[in-house]
Description:
Layout: E1 4-10, H1 15-29, E2 33-38, E3 51-59, E4 62-63, H2 65-73, E5 83-89
Parallel strand pairs: 1-2, 1-3, 3-5
Antiparallel strand pairs: 3-4
Amino acid sequence: MKTKIGILYATVDGQTLKICNVLKEILIEKGNEVNLFSIEDFSKKPTDFDKFVIGSSIRYGKHNSKIIAFINEHKYLKIISNTFLFLTYFSYIYILNTT
């Protein structure tokens, strides 16, 4: 059975969308069912998916207001281990190893 993954994004210059598309392709190659949504078009619930990714840009030091509103509306996401959040700043990608 395929894992159903939802990816929700907000982007200004398109960098976050580019990252989401790469992530989507990798996850599909690994045998997952992946759906990609703009915050503008999302009408489902995060719980419709087995795993849920939120990607957003930071513009002039501020998070996307629609993503912030979405997270506040779905506060229970903070305690679900199958939810992942990433933020982009300019076009840099930082990989942090916390081990």
